[in-house]
Amino acid sequence: MNGQRAAAEPYTTRFETEVTAVDGKRVWLETTYFYAEGGGQPADRGRIGDVPVEDVQVVDGEHVHVLADPPSFKAGHRVMCSIDWSFRMYCMRAHTASHVLYGAGRHLLEDLGYGGFDIGEEKIRVDLETTTEIDDDVLIELDDLVNRAVWESRPVSWEDVQVADARERDEIAFNEATEEGAFSRGQVRVVTIGSKDDNGRTTNGSSNPWDVAACGGTHVRNTREIGPVTVLDRSNPGEGLTRVEFAVGPRAIERRAAEKRAALAAKQTLGADVGSISDALEETVERQDALEADKRTLEAELVERALEAADPVERDGERWLVTSVDGLEPEALGDAVREAPDASADVLAVVGETDYPFVVIRSNEAVDAGALVDYLTAEFGGGGGGSSSFAQAGGFDCSADAILEALADGR
Description:
single chain, alpha+beta, Elongation Factor Tu (Ef-tu), domain 3, Threonyl-tRNA Synthetase, Chain A, domain 2, Diaminopimelate Epimerase, Chain A, domain 1, six-stranded mixed sheet, 9 helices, elongated, RNA-binding
């Protein structure tokens, strides 16, 4: 038998065996069906005797069981062991689902390679090497194919194969860095998710299987045992890698429910059926963009009219236009002044007010706009900054009229 007993007999969760050694909280057993952490799969939970198992690791080829407390039993004693079936089954479902996901990737992605895998409490991640960009549409297609493969009740099997023979089979996914536990004494443990025959029935046959991979983990016997799967998101953990995250079981159901609630809320808000939400949302965004563009045009016109109505002031050979505009936020007023067409004035200074008075100054650089802002903040408090040609300030400890007067009088 290649690999761990747990992987070969994943449905075994109770067994009796002899204790071969005890060192504090660490225990060695003659025979064990506890899965030791490896290949991205966490260690099994459970009990040896009446003591909880906190961790299981393979050290020098042997399983070391780390208990919550030093046990009362000693070497030579026989103990009853129990594995937490709920957690074991979660890992079996999650691990098999990762193979189904990789199989879906075989149908959708170019130059596919396996980069890693990890089972977490809330979600599972698979790192894929591919030249295909995994965007939202591809993510949805992966989700669709995974759940179809689950629904099709494809058989899952595992066997030991000579490593040399396995390497000649192009369909087997290898990653010796993460699947070290699958290799032993010239053999490799190969997990196969079966294909469908011409009548739509599934089979373990080698003809066109869904996925074949070197793997030392625990798996269910049939994809239908995986249950609901929801692809959650993707990210880029490193160059050439795309990390796809998914959930199984209750977490997958919760995510589906959240997505359903969001879709129904969008349906009600947009007044469209679920199938048309995307088009309706696109139209809404386009209308919003058009309204924003109209708003910016009106803001620019408001500032332009205010500048046209202002009486110019000659100061040290420079022509100043100083005015005020109500109802605009600082950013909007700044954009409007920056783009104002009045190039005949050397200095444009516009005062506005929201929760506090603020000022926007544009200059031809003969007059330093930044220096003007520094003067105003030194005189009236607040803060601001900018360049010699454009500067803004706000939060003054005075009224907008006081700022306007200071600029108009040249103080």
